[in-house]
Design a protein that fits this description.
The chain is an alpha+beta fold. It is built from 16 helices and 39 strands. The strands form eleven sheets. Strands 1-30-28-27 form a four-stranded antiparallel beta sheet, with no helix packed on it. The protein is globular and about 85 Å long.
């Protein structure tokens, strides 16, 4: 026991490393006792050596199932560590309750586990039982409100949220979130807010929703694409070569969705197409990597859940796929998050960049260079692109206008990287160009021309705390610690941050983001797919339409403010009516946080438009990396063909331009991925222009 006593002294002194050998010796000396291994597990936990702590606690609870402190520590670890395991945590809490049925902390843990598993009625029952002895507990009443909210019992949820509010001091920092959740539940119950809600339960200040220039209708259920899962990346493409846009969708550890267009609906064909892969995925980026004229798919895994191999699904030309990732050398066994396609070395073959290391594993990002023979080699180190941070989002774009693709990498806890492509390798110029922020909470980036000045600007979304989102949403305040950044390209070499000036600096939990001119006025708009991992977070998506003086959120009026914890965002004119429609992958972090994906059909405006479909010189058939600049009256616009960006998703490869009231495009300038430049036009508005790259001389 002396060794154990010495170790406990060192633990109190925070000399944790000194305590480890003492505890290990105590374990060997007293192999049948639980105290030393339990203390060692706690030390590992304090040192963030979580794998060792988990293994130690698992061994202890197997050997000493009646030792409640270890059983509770193990259950709590299963609830909080990555990847979380609420099912195993529930089993552990239930085991504790067989030993001590009155242990309220175990009862609360079991109730929280059931909430995360989607067992909402059971969770509500458990929280109600706990509240019999603690009727005004501010945390338990809030969780009861959450469980009832998920259950669809909105009237009861409103009552529980009121109790949670009553249980807090007037100046409590927890109050805004409780008031917000009460608002969401009250709206669900009554369809209006504040209605007859007592003044003390109302949010004191709430900005008036802006009027949308056009409306959207969620038709996912009607056309057969309302996939229910923890939705992640999505991709639009013609996967079977029939000329219609099809849809691919992935979710965490669930079957993929492949939806082929059939008249006005979609046919679910994942199983028949060879895509019945229950491992699911995170990113869904499509490209014709082998140059055979059909669209292939790359899917990443397993991000926050840990390490797992990725898939490269090769399309045989008929819409049937085979996973060739291992044979092609792109299976990447690390904790991959998103990915993007682009020809970084200018040889015509599409290369692949993958963001790794999100769990803090230290895994470096991969840059897979295509050899043109069906195989890839990771040249991230060779080309100075092997970022070893906690990388999350990636996007290609030629920001400096020199004809090759540069790369932006968003890191969740480190400065972001802007990797300028110098032809043979990359050089990180993020600090020099002023685009390294946000430092904490960066999520997904994309390149686009925000100000219509002919160069690519940069948007980076961020994950804000729920409290910050609520404060920002209810007061309109800006400048929070984690917010989106909008960098405008000033001279193809530096950027200036304009988010606050342009009205897009509010705090959001923006896990997904995408861009497109949804009202065809000639300005590019931004869609944010919002949320966060906790079950009580109910945050609507946002649609910022660009007006001359900045951006305005019109999501509520436009009908695209879904609460479903959005991730994948992909735009396409799937119904060929001249306006951009939107598919969003919805779903949260935990197994019970399930939402249906949405297909928002754009109901249109009277504005004019023109779409340009480029066919590149083989092997880059879809001309990924090509830029088109159009001139119409007194305005010019630029767009780039891309695959990836945002939450690892793929817009249609068409370049869709809104023209406002202009009915003609005088000139179209194309810079092909090969570097060749061509001019075309004039063209009348309201048509799809198909341009094929001329044969090289």
């Amino acid at each position: 026991m002396a060794l154990l006593g010495l170790a406990e002294i060192n633990i109190r002194k925070r000399a944790l490393h000194a305590a480890i050998p003492q505890l290990q010796r105590a374990m060997r000396a007293q192999a049948r006792r639980v105290e030393a291994p339990f203390q060692l597990a706690l030390v590992y936990r304090m040192l963030r050596r979580d794998d060792e702590a988990r293994a130690m606690l698992e061994e202890i609870v197997g050997q000493f199932p009646a030792f409640t402190p270890a059983c509770m520590a193990y259950a709590d670890l299963l609830m909080t560590d990555a990847p979380p395991s609420p099912q195993r945590a529930l089993e552990q809490y239930e085991a504790v309750l067989t030993v001590d049925p009155s242990l309220q902390r175990a009862q609360a843990g079991a109730a929280a586990s059931r909430l995360r598993l989607g067992l909402f009625a059971d969770a509500s029952r458990d929280f109600k039982m706990l509240l019999k002895s603690k009727p005004n507990d501010p945390h338990l009443t809030f969780l009861l409100g959450t469980a009832l909210h998920w259950q669809g019992s909105y009237a009861e949820a409103v009552t529980a949220y009121k109790t949670a509010i009553n249980s807090l001091p007037a100046a409590s920092p927890l109050l805004p979130v409780r008031l917000w959740n009460l608002r969401v539940a009250y709206l669900a119950q009554h369809g209006v807010y504040p209605g007859n809600l007592e003044p003390r339960y109302r949010i004191a200040s709430l900005p008036v929703a802006a009027k949308a220039p056009n409306q959207f209708t969620d038709i996912a259920e009607h056309v057969g694409v309302a996939k229910l899962d923890r939705g992640r990346g999505v991709a639009w493409a013609d996967f079977n070569g029939d000329g219609d846009l099809d849809l691919f969708s992935v979710g965490i550890q669930t079957q993929h969705g492949l939806f082929l267009a059939r008249n006005d609906r979609f046919l679910s064909t994942a199983s028949a197409a060879g895509l019945n892969d229950a491992r699911g995925g995170w990113a869904a980026v499509s490209a014709d990597y082998d140059g055979d004229g059909d669209i292939d798919l790359y899917v990443t895994r397993d991000a926050w859940e840990g390490a797992a191999t990725n898939s490269l699904y090769n399309n045989d030309g008929t819409g049937h796929f085979v996973d060739v990732a291992t044979a092609a050398g792109v299976d990447d066994p690390d904790d991959s998050f998103t990915a993007a396609w682009g020809d970084v070395d200018g040889d015509g073959w599409l290369d692949l960049y993958v963001a790794d290391g999100i769990t803090g594993s230290g895994a470096a990002n991969k840059l897979y260079i295509n050899d043109g023979k069906g195989s890839f080699a990771d040249q991230a180190v060779l080309r100075a692109a092997a970022d070893g941070s906690n990388s999350l989002g990636v996007a290609f774009g030629d920001y400096d206008g020199n004809g090759d693709l540069d790369l932006y990498v968003a890191n969740v806890a480190d400065p972001n990287r802007l990797l300028r492509n110098d032809g043979t390798q990359f050089n990180d110029v993020a600090e020099a160009t002023g685009v390294s922020r946000p430092i904490n909470g960066s999520y997904v980036p994309f390149f686009f021309d925000s100000d219509n000045d002919g160069d690519l600007d940069l948007f980076v979304s961020a994950m804000a705390y729920y409290e910050d989102f609520v404060t920002s949403a209810t007061t309109g305040s800006r400048g929070h610690r984690s917010r989106s950044y909008l960098y405008l390209n000033e001279d193809n070499s530096t950027f200036r941050e304009y988010a606050a000036e342009l009205g897009i600096a509010r705090a959001f939990g923006s896990m997904g983001a995408g861009f497109g001119d949804v009202d065809n006025d000639g300005n590019i708009d931004i869609y944010l797919a919002n949320g966060g991992p906790i079950m009580p977070r109910f945050e609507p998506n946002a649609l910022f339409v660009r007006r001359n003086d900045g951006y305005v959120d019109v999501a509520a009026d436009a009908g695209v403010d879904n609460l479903g914890k959005g991730h994948g965002v992909a735009f396409a004119d799937y119904d060929a009516d001249g306006d951009l429609d939107l598919y969003v992958g919805h779903g949260g972090h935990y197994p019970g946080d399930l939402w249906k994906n949405s297909l928002y059909r754009n109901e249109g405006t009277q504005a004019q438009w023109i779409h340009i479909v480029l066919t590149g010189h083989p092997p880059n058939h879809n001309a990924i990396g090509a830029q088109a600049r159009i001139y119409s009256g007194d305005r010019s616009q630029i767009a780039q063909v891309h695959s990836g960006g945002g939450f690892g998703s793929t817009d249609s490869f068409a370049l869709e331009f809104g023209l406002g009231n202009r009915n003609r495009v005088e000139r179209v300038e194309i810079r092909w991925p090969s570097g060749r430049k061509e001019q075309y036009g004039p063209f009348d508005a309201n048509q799809v222009i198909r341009i094929t790259e001329p044969e090289q001389k």
